[in-house]
Amino acid sequence: MPSTPVEQAGQATGQTVLIIDDEPTACVAMAARLKHLGYRVLQAGDGKAGLEVLRRERPDLTIVDWMMPEMDGPSFCEVVRQDDALLSSQILMMTSNDQPEQIAEGLARGADDFLSKAASKYEITARVQAGLRAAGLIRRLEDVTAEIRRKQEALERELQSAARYVESLLPASGSIGPGVQMVCCYRPSLGLGGDLFNVVPWSDDLLGLYLLDASGHGVSPALRSASFSTFLRRESLLRHVGSSDPGAILTEANKHFPLTEDGHYFTIVFATFDVRCQTLSYATAGHGGAFLHRTSGEVCWMARPNLPLGFDPSTVYGTEVLAVEPGDRFYVLSDGLYEVPDSTGTLWGQERLEQLVRTFGHRPLTEVLSGAVNEAVRWLGHEQFPDDVAVMAVELTEADRHE
Amino acid sequence: MAMQTKERSVQNGVILELVGDLTYANREQFKTAVEAIRQKGCRHLILNMAEVRFVDSSGLGLLALISQNFKLSQGKVSMLKPQSYVREIMSLANIQKLIPVYDNEQDALAGQQKAA
After folding, report:
1. Would you call B68 and A259 a contact, using CB atoms and an 8 Å cutoff?
2. Scanning A141, A214, A332, A390, which has the fewest C-beta atoms within 10 Å of its C-beta?
3. How many other CB atoms are there within 10 angstroms of residue A233's CB atom?
4. Are residues A245 and A319 in contact, defined by beta-carbon separation less than 8 angstroms?
């Protein structure tokens, strides 16, 4: 008898069909038909044995009889659907009783399609092919999902590696000069932002400090920040700016770091402590995260409305000077610490942060920093900050001040 | 929230009505709409911000970028009626130095005439 195109369809594919049936005659007849169509055929005599073959061979399609000893067809389907490794298997349920109620029950318990034992060979072929089509699509979907997951994991590893690199550029907490203690904290977000901070030791009595934020998320802002931090090294600043004046440094940096073609830019606060003269000079560019907590308890934010770097090449950034005294504390931080939403979307905000700093008073800086991070986490409701968190806190100490 | 844009020609300029958030997620849509207007030779782009609830750091950068691009083609960008939260973000970054802010269309257009 000449084969119809329908009968030929399985021949080139090498797909595997598992038949689970306790009646040897029916099983052999179906196997012969499918082999004739070109499929690789596996057989099992009951549900339990079928599960073992399914696990071992992962066939493209499983044809299972309803009535069987040990484990019947619907129970077999239920087990498969609860097993993560098997649940996407395509199952064709075979029965001699094809009443609508029974079909509904079989589908509800996990079968994908039905095949009557009285079906013609054309119907059997068509249903097997339909099942294999679905199996092929599911397998492709699984492959693509696995590929996406692999790429995602690779990307996350790269982000983590970039975060470790950024961390390697950061200063260590401790004494950063005579009579100046610094404590810092850095928690990169999952997506990695572009926060970076450091200390620029100008001389024994003069200490530069900066905290910058590159707009955007991912490896690109981290790279831009790393490049900016190279510009902000002492030798580079002496060469390009020739001054430790924060305003002059930002005015020059503004020319070196124009907006990117996507409109990305830096915000920064740069401060210089003069330990001998007891002054804090600072300049900001679109950055609002710096404040002085005086021994008197007064908190003085250092936000000046001015353009971020790169917005206008002709901008001249001015320097503000504040008198400081031993015990005063200077905090520079990224908005990632306080721009954290609670479950209703309300931000924790600068005011609550300021209140917390006042409450902690002059307890050790490490306690204030961990207190602030813990409170932000409590507000957020989880540990994963949406943006980078970077804080550097500096205290002028009296005891070991250099006279 | 996604962004919708609608443009309307006025004397000596184009008013671009923005509805939604000016954020990283909507940057392409915003850039495309603005660039199309600039390519047509518009000299004065007026962004109506009345229906913009939020501008993030990426949106701020885009505003600076389009202002620079218009300047390069001898044009300018103005802004109409930003909401108070957006106005606050703008003023912290001193954006009004680059993009003047107006409360109504007449003033925005007059600003353009004054500059000419």
Report:
1. yes
2. A141
3. 12
4. yes
* pLDDT score of A6: 46
Banded pLDDT at A69 (limits 50, 70, 90): confident
8 Å CB contact of B92 and A286: yes
Q: Is A281 helix (H, G, I), strand (E, B) or coil?
A: strand
Does A347 touch chain B if contact means CB atoms closer than 8 Å?
no
User: Are B93 and A215 in contact (CB < 8 Å)?
Assistant: no
> How far apart (Å, rounded) are the C-alpha atoms in residues A270 and A259?
19
pTM for this predicted structure: 0.75
Beta pairing, strands A299-301 & A290-293: antiparallel
pLDDT at A171 over 50: yes
Nearest CA distance, A193 vs chain B (angstrom): 12
- Tell me which DSSP letter residue A275 carries: T
Mutate to test the interface with A, among B23, B24, B54, B57 (most CBs of A within 10 A): B57
Structure tokens at A322: 């504040």
Comparing CB atoms, the residue among B62, B68, B93 nearest residue A286 is B93
**ipTM for the complex?**
0.87
Reading the block at residue B100, the tokens are 């003047």
Domains of chain A: 5-141 (3.40.50.2300), 170-396 (3.60.40.10)
Give the fold, CATH level 3, of B4-115: Transcription Regulator spoIIAA (3.30.750)
Count other Cβ atoms within 10 Å, centred on residue A384: 10
Which chain A residue shows the shortest CA-CA distance from B23?
A216
Report, as an integer, the average pLDDT of A321-327: 93
